[in-house]
Specification:
isomerase, EC 5.4.99.12, Alpha-Beta Plaits
Length: 266
C-alpha cells in the first residue's frame, strides 16, 4: 500500500524553467520526480509529484510544499537525507512528514506568503542579479505603506494578473502586506500573505508600489486600478529574480486564517 508524504523544500530558481514539468526543460518538479522515483527504485517515473502551486522561471522558494505517494514506508528523516543526497545543489528538502492519504498539497492550501526583494542601488549589482529586482530611483516608504493598506481584504485583482492565467476568478484576499528597508543590504523588502495569488500578481503589485514610492503614480493608484480593472494600466511586471515563496499554509498552521481557498478560486 502506498504511503503519502508531505515534503517542504527550498530552491534557487535561477536555473529552473519554473516549478511545473515542461518538455525538454529543467524544472523543479522534473528533478524531484526523478529523484523520488530513483529512491523508490522505480524502473519508470511511476510516482507523481503534486505541488502547492507553480512558481515561474527564476522565482525562488524558501518553503514550497509537495506531496507524493511512496510504495513502501520509510522514516521521514531517512527520506529527507536520502533525497538531499541525490538532489542538485540548487534544491534542498527541509522537512518530510507522513500525512493522511486525504492530504493534498494544492487543494488543502489555506494561504501563501511571498517576499519580494528590490535592490535600491544606483547601479545594478551583478552579484544580486539573480536574487533581487532593481530600482535605482528614490522611494518614499511612507507613501508605499499608505498604498499597501488598499491591498488588504478581498478584491478583484484583474488589473494585477498577467495574461495566461487559468484562474476562474480574479478575486483574492490579502491578509497582510508590508514593506521595509533593509539598511544593510540597501533593499526594499515587501511581504504579502493571502489566501492565494494570481499569475504574476505579486510582481505586478510590487511594480505599482515602487511607482507610487517614486511619485510617478498617485498614492491612491491601487484604488484606481480596482476601478479600471485593466492590466495595461498597472504597466510593469518586476523581475522574477526578486520573488520568493516563503511559506505555504494549511489548515491548522495558522489559526487566524484557517479557510481553504474556495474551489472556484483555485
Amino acid at each position: 500500500m502506498n504511503l503519502r508524504y508531505k515534503v517542504t523544500l527550498a530552491y534557487d530558481g535561477t536555473n529552473f524553467a519554473g516549478f511545473q514539468r515542461q518538455p525538454n526543460q529543467r524544472t523543479v518538479e522534473s528533478e524531484l520526480t526523478r529523484v523520488v522515483n530513483k529512491m523508490a527504485k522505480m524502473p519508470t517515473p511511476a510516482i507523481v509529484i503534486y505541488g502547492s502551486g507553480r512558481t515561474d522561471a527564476g522565482v525562488h522558494a524558501l518553503g514550497q510544499v509537495v506531496h507524493f505517494d511512496f510504495p513502501f514506508p520509510m522514516k521521514t528523516e531517512n527520506m529527507r537525507k536520502g533525497l538531499n543526497s541525490m538532489l542538485p545543489v540548487d534544491m534542498e528538502v527541509l522537512k518530510v512528514s507522513a500525512v493522511s492519504d486525504q492530504f493534498h498539497a494544492r487543494y488543502d492550501v489555506s494561504g501563501k506568503r511571498y517576499v519580494y526583494r528590490m535592490d535600491l542601488g544606483e547601479f545594478r549589482n551583478p552579484f544580486k542579479r539573480h536574487y533581487t529586482g532593481h530600482w535605482k530611483f528614490p522611494v518614499d516608504l511612507k507613501k508605499i505603506r499608505t498604498a499597501l493598506n488598499d491591498l488588504i481584504g478581498e478584491h478583484d485583482f484583474t488589473s494585477f494578473v498577467a495574461s495566461g492565467s487559468s484562474a476562474r476568478t480574479n478575486y483574492r484576499t490579502i491578509y497582510e502586506a508590508t514593506a521595509k528597508i533593509d539598511e544593510i543590504q540597501n533593499e526594499l523588502v515587501f511581504e504579502f500573505y493571502g489566501n492565494g495569488f494570481l499569475y504574476n500578481q505579486v510582481r505586478i503589485m510590487v511594480g505599482v508600489l515602487v511607482e507610487i514610492g517614486a511619485g510617478t503614480r498617485p498614492v491612491d493608484g491601487i484604488q484606481e486600478l480596482y476601478r479600471i480593472n485593466d492590466r495595461r494600466y498597472a504597466r510593469r511586471t518586476v523581475p522574477a529574480s526578486g520573488l520568493y515563496l516563503k511559506h505555504v499554509y494549511y489548515e491548522g498552521d495558522d489559526p487566524a486564517h484557517p479557510t481553504k481557498l474556495p474551489k472556484h478560486q483555485r
